[in-house]
C-alpha cells in the first residue's frame, strides 16, 4: 500500500473547485437527486445522462412520484440510455424507499448498500455527498488516477485489485470534505487524467506521478482482457396489416432488454435468406393465424447493435398481411411503447411517413 501523499486531497480539491462543471446534481445534497444521478451515470457519460436526469427530475421530482409511476412509463422515459436493469432497479428501490421508509433514504453506507441496484460505488457516493460520511468512491476514473499516480500494476478488474484500490482511496479521502473529494477525483479522471493522450505536461501532479515519471502512462491502469464478443443474429418480423396494425411482444426472462417491447423475433446462428426464414418452425408457428401476402427484407445489410459483450446483427423483415392476430397494436401507437433503441431507430425511420 503506497504511503499517503501529503496534500494530495487539498491539491485535488483546489483543482476541482476551480475547474468543476456546473451540473445540477452538484447543487444539492438531496439523497434522491444524488441517487438518481449516480444510477444514471453508471456506464453512461455525463453529456448523455444529463438530459435524462433533467427529464426524470421534471417527471418525478420526489421519490414518491417515481414510486407511483407505472413501470412502462419509467422504461419509456429511460429509453435510449441502455442497461435497462438500472431503470427496473431504480423503480423497485423508489417503491421501497417510498412505501417502507416513509420516503426517507438511509443515511449511512451499510443501509444504502442494501437497496436494490445500489453497490459500493453508489452507496459511497450518496453517503459522502448527502451525509458527509468518509466513504471513498472507486469507479473507472478513480482507478485510472490512482493506478497512474502511484504506479500500481494490479489489474483493476480483479478482486485483489478492487480491494487494493478501495483501500487506497479510503486512505486518501478528505475526512472533512468527503463528498467534495469524491467528486473531485472523479472529475479529474473524467476531464484531465483521461484514458487516451492525457495532458501530463500540465498536470497538477506531474512532479510526483509515478506513471509520468517512469513513462508508463499508456500502460496503466492494467485490465485483464474481457471475454471475446459474441455475435448474435436477430430477425425481427414487422407485421403490417391492412388495418394499419402490427404486433409487439414484451421480452421476458433475465436476458437483455427485460420487459421492453419488440417485434416478434427469430434468432438464428447466422444470416438467413427468405426461404430459410420461412422454413423455421418458429416462423411457421408465428404465421399460422396470419394470411401473409408478402415478405420483404427492409435492410439487406444488418444493423449491428453493439452491447458490452455481444454484437446484435439485426435485420427487419416486413410481413404484409390481410388478417390480424390477437394482441395487435395500431402502428400509430408503436412510438408510445418502451422499446430498445435498436427498435426505436427502426420505427423512427420506417414509420415516419407511414
From TrEMBL:
At the top of the EC hierarchy, this enzyme's class is: hydrolase
* EC number(s) from the headed UniProt entry: 3.2.2.31
**Pfam families membership:** HhH-GPD, NUDIX_4
Q: Does the keyword DNA damage apply?
A: yes
- InterPro entries, alphabetized: A/G_AdeGlyc_MutY, DNA_glycosylase, HhH-GPD_domain, HhH_base_excis_C, MIG/MutY, MutY_C, NUDIX_hydrolase-like_dom_sf
Taking the record's annotation, the residue ranges forming a coiled coil are none
The similarity comment for this entry is:
Belongs to the Nth/MutY family.
Q: What does this protein do?
A: Adenine glycosylase active on G-A mispairs. MutY also corrects error-prone DNA synthesis past GO lesions which are due to the oxidatively damaged form of guanine: 7,8-dihydro-8-oxoguanine (8-oxo-dGTP).
Q: Which NCBIfam families match?
A: mutY
Protein name as it appears in the record: Adenine DNA glycosylase
